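User: Hey, my collaborator sent me this sequence without any context and asked if I could get a structure. I don't really work with proteins. Can you help?
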Amino acid sequence: MDKELLTECVGWAASVILLVTLIRQIVKQANAEHPETISTWLFVGQAAASTLFVIYSALVGNMIFVVTNSCLLLTALAGQWVSRSKRRRARSTGQ
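Assistant: No problem. I've predicted the 3D structure and written it out in C-alpha cell form, which is a compact way to encode the shape of the chain:
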C-alpha cells in the first residue's frame, strides 16, 4: 500500500470513529432523563469551531477535513436541537 493511500485511510478511519462517537453521545443525550445533562455551550462552541474548520480545510484543500468538519457541524446542530427540544418538553411538563 502506498503512503498516500495509507494516509487517506488513516484520516477517514479517524473521521468515522469521531463521528460515531459524537452520534452515540447525541443518542445518549436524547434518551437522558434530565435535559440539562449537556451544556448548550458545548454545541455552540462545537458549531463555531466546526464552521471555521470547514473553511480552513477548504482553503488548504483537505477533503477529509472538509467532510469530517461538515459532519461535525451537523452533529452540533442535531445535538443542540435535541437539547432544546428536551428542555422545552421538560418546562412544559413542569419537570
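In plain terms: DSSP finds three helices and no strands in the chain. You can pass these C-alpha cells on to your collaborator as they are.
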